[in-house]
Design brief:
7-stranded parallel beta sheet, alpha/beta
Length: 275
């Protein structure tokens, strides 16, 4: 039987999807026919960034998905709170049905990009980032994957970062890098447990992506600081990442499990910082 990227009849859930990459993932999944659930700490968080706000074509990501002809539901939750995560997942499933596709996208860093060096961590930043990135991913997978295993089908895509694969040359932002590397190892373990039940678990690894929020940060810091690490000499786009989500969420990747797919434009193995 021919493999297809048609997701009609499937239910997808994306965390951290009120703006940025998460929003792009939702729209791509909706375009492919999936009903889409959205979890975010603030379903209108795009209002915090002018670059994100101007991209919206409706009041929320859910409304944008509905405009594409699919069902969509949203729930607000702090992903560092296990009970809130489980409650949000239940709300989405009550409205849309059992989840077939999970994209754990919510997360982020804290502090200055040249701070939090490995031996000189800000402990508030460290705990905040590890809880948001690693704990949040584990909580969400724990709320969703057992149901996938019971039903004998599922696609799990956990979002890491090029920071999980290569250290900054000055040891900076180690709290973020370590939390994303932990997600990678957790996903490998999850793939082993869930694979026999026809549930695949993989990571997408974005590099320097020009989202509506980050493009301004790149300009402020000096674009060449980042571009010198990228073989293709351009920033990635949300579409570049959504293309890989399409692959990993569909039957096109039916035998891909426990893998990391880089979307980095050929970022060098050694990340140059302040040199």
């Amino acid at each position: 039987m021919a493999r297809t990227n048609d997701l009609s009849g499937k239910v997808a859930l994306v965390t951290g999807a009120a703006r940025g990459l998460g929003r792009a993932y939702c729209l791509r999944l909706a375009e492919l026919g999936a009903d889409v659930g959205v979890i975010d700490i603030d379903l209108k968080s795009y209002n915090q960034f002018e670059g994100e706000k101007k991209l919206l074509t409706a009041d929320t990501t859910m409304d944008e998905c509905r405009a594409l002809g699919v069902k969509s539901a949203g729930a607000e939750a702090d992903i560092t709170n296990k009970d809130q995560v489980f409650a949000a997942v239940k709300k989405i499933e009550d409205e849309l049905g059992p989840i077939d596709i999970l994209v754990c996208n919510a997360g982020g860093g804290m502090g200055a990009p040249d701070g939090n060096k490995a031996a000189h961590l800000n402990w508030d930043h460290f705990h905040g980032v590890v809880e948001r990135n690693f704990f949040g991913t584990v909580y969400t997978c724990s709320a969703v994957v057992p149901g996938m295993m019971e039903r004998g089908y599922g696609k799990v895509i956990n979002v890491i970062s090029v920071a999980a694969l290569a250290a900054n040359s000055d040891g900076s932002y180690s709290h973020y890098a370590s939390s994303k590397a932990a997600i990678r190892q957790y996903t490998i373990a999850l793939a082993q447990e869930a694979g026999r039940y026809n549930v695949t678990c993989n990571c997408i690894c974005p590099g320097f992506i020009a989202t509506g929020r980050l493009v301004e940060n790149y300009k402020k810091a000096g674009e060449e600081t980042f571009l010198r690490n990228i073989a293709m000499k351009r920033f990635g786009t949300t579409e570049d990442c959504a293309n890989v989500i399409e692959f990993l969420a569909s039957d096109l990747s039916s035998y891909v499990n426990g893998s990391v797919v880089e979307v980095t434009g050929g970022t060098l193995n050694r990340m140059l910082m302040n040199e």
